Amino acid sequence: MDPLTAQQQAILDLEQRFWLTAGEKENAIRALGLAAVRYYQLLNQIITTEAALAYAAASTNRVHRLSRFGPRLRR
Fold it and tell me: Is the distance from CB of 53 to CB of 60 less than 8 angstroms?
């Protein structure tokens, strides 16, 4: 299992936070130096790794579940 990079850890840390508005999360994503599209591409890659599960199991499972079933869950 390859360890997570600092950027990958920061992405998972950001996913653990609660956001009152979408704008707050978008600002936090920009603070990481990423465009929103790139952030979500990286996030979707990260959540498939064992290292992500070991680092942040709850948020990794939540994001993974939402990415697979999101449109149905959000209705």
Answer: yes
Domain boundaries, the chain: 6-73
pTM summary value: 0.84
Rounded to whole angstroms, the Cα distance separating 53 from 30 reads 24
Residue type, 58: A
Q: pLDDT value at position 30?
A: 97
Going by the DSSP 8-state scheme, the letter that residue 2 receives in this structure is: P
Report the alpha-carbon distance of residue 18 to residue 25 in Å, rounded: 9
Ranges in the chain, pLDDT < 50: 73-75
Show contacts of 31-34: CB within 8 Å, 24+ apart.
Answer: 32/7
Structure tokens at 33: 């130096």
